[in-house]
Design brief:
The protein has 310 residues and is mostly helical. The chain has helices spanning 2-25, 31-82, 98-103, 105-122, 128-134, 139-146, 148-168, 170-194, 199-228, 234-263, 265-286, 293-296, 301-309.
Length: 310
């Protein structure tokens, strides 16, 4: 358990550092592609962690598989070790803190947006696996949805989401994802109510909702997180958003199971579709692009660069 805690602490620390590095380093016009890398990288990382690792265990046993994964992680970390820091620590004028984050109105609005959006995208999908099993989908097909198929669809849609964010902005992509997710969840709910649970219908709906639509939507949401994060404490601000996402997800996992147990899968997916539709006005209202934080603080990226040179 102590080893697992060390691993969890290391993984979360690296995640925070990567988020902070992206917020501090990238101009707003690059946020779409940055979050394509984040979301698409998550799908690739899951494939490496749950797929490649199991293949290594089968071939060379546990100890050597762990050593191989440690070497791979070290190689993946080389770009950060070899690249110069975008903001030397000496140039930091503000000490990052949670208190500073929560003082900002835009940050508090962003936390509300994160809660609603995460609930709308995730709550209906917690019971997707059990529903597919009970509907007669075989384990091989379910493995395709959760494994290679989900990775390919999710990675492709994450790249597409980055291009769309670049073209239309994060709010438009979040709204599009909410509309598509409402349709997909409604389809799953209707299939559960009517008993029309053929694999030719369920598998495309499951792949679309759990991988494709979610990937597009979260590219838009993470781009919004980057816009709302203060570059002077990007790691803290972005982490607060993601912790809100995680907390809402845990609550939704319990609630979805309770609804499905007492009222059935149709009620579970139907309620999730209704909540997703109700989230649309929240995203329209809170998803407006905030004023640039650099303008808010009277500091631009260019003037900051000049100041560092001086």
């Amino acid at each position: 358990m102590a080893t697992f805690m060390v691993i969890a602490f290391a993984a979360s620390t690296v995640d925070i550092a990567c988020d902070g590095h992206a917020v501090e380093s990238l101009h707003q016009r690059h946020h779409g592609w940055a979050n394509s890398a984040q979301v698409g990288g998550a799908y690739l990382g899951a494939a490496i962690g749950s797929g490649l690792f199991l293949l290594l265990v089968a071939q060379v046993e546990w100890a050597w598989a762990m050593i191989s994964m440690a070497v791979l992680l070290s190689l993946l970390g080389l770009p950060f070790l070899l690249s110069p820091s975008s903001k030397p620590e000496a140039a930091r004028l503000q000490r990052p803190s949670v208190t500073n984050a929560l003082r900002r109105v835009e940050m508090r609005k962003g936390l509300v947006l994160a809660a609603f959006y995460a609930a709308s995208q995730k709550w209906g999908l917690f019971m997707l696996g059990p529903f597919l099993i009970d509907a007669g989908v075989d384990l091989g097909s379910l493995g395709t949805i959760n494994g290679a198929g989900g990775m390919i669809v999710g990675f492709g849609c994450a790249i597409a989401g980055g291009a769309c964010v670049r073209a239309w902005g994060s709010r438009g992509i979040m709204i599009l994802a909410l509309i598509l997710q409402t349709v997909a969840l409604s389809g799953l709910g209707l299939a559960a109510w009517t008993g029309n649970t053929t694999q030719s219908l369920l598998i495309p709906l499951a792949l679309a909702s759990s991988s494709g639509i979610m990937a597009i939507g979260f590219v838009g949401l993470y781009a919004r997180f980057m816009e709302l994060s203060d570059p002077r404490q990007g790691g803290v601000d972005f982490t607060l958003f993601q912790c809100t996402d995680a907390l809402v997800s845990m609550i939704g996992g319990v609630g979805s199971g309770w609804i499905a147990q007492h009222f059935g899968y149709g009620a579970c997916f139907g309620a999730a579709a209704a909540f997703t539709a109700l989230t649309l006005p929240v995203v329209v209202l809170l998803g407006q692009r905030p004023p640039s934080l650099s303008e808010e603080n009277g500091i631009s990226h260019s003037s900051g660069a000049v100041a560092r040179q001086l």
